[in-house]
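User: I'll paste a sequence; please echo it back and then give the predicted structure.

Assistant: Echoing your sequence first, then the prediction.
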Amino acid sequence: MQSSPVSRPSVFTFYLFAIALMTMFLAVTGANAAPDSATPITVSSTYTLSPYDVIDVTVYNEDDLHTRTRLGSDGTAIFPLIGTINLAGKTVAEANEMIQKKYSDGFVKDPHILLTVVEYRRNTFSILGQVLRPGIYEIPEGTHMSIVDAILLAGGFSHSADQNGVRVKRMVKGKATIFKVKAGKMADSSDVAPFDIEPGDVIKVNESWW
């Protein structure tokens, strides 16, 4: 008895088979690929660190001491063994030297430190208290924003706000400094010098007791 001829696969069948192989290949290579990570930013050693900057600190031959952290609102960061250090207002070189000194003080013999900036803080400020929309707001790149503009951005004063009792907390050379600002008078008179907001400022609009 004559056997039936075996039909050859069509071109379309080969096409589907090739797509399936390619899909499997991409799935396998994608699963094994290293996840994306933030790349350290090349900055000058004279760059001044600010609150909310993200830094990466490596101690040569001490993998357990590797630290990647975001500076707090007060400019501090916590490191293994040496604890909390205030780095706000320090240049990259100064911060590197400070951390190195801390580790060399009884923790690591002749430590070699590499501090890099992974992410800059955004140009934001916080406003709370007697405004209609308390929160965190961004200062547009390349612009100046006065205290009056900042309050307007937050919806303006509430009915119970002490318009001339505004407090602005700002880190100055690593120390928290409070500025008392009469925002109401600034809005009403051109004779009162404006007060510009800086990134990282915390604005508090107090309640009026009158």
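Helices lie at 11-32, 92-104, 147-153, 183-188. The radius of gyration is 28 Å.
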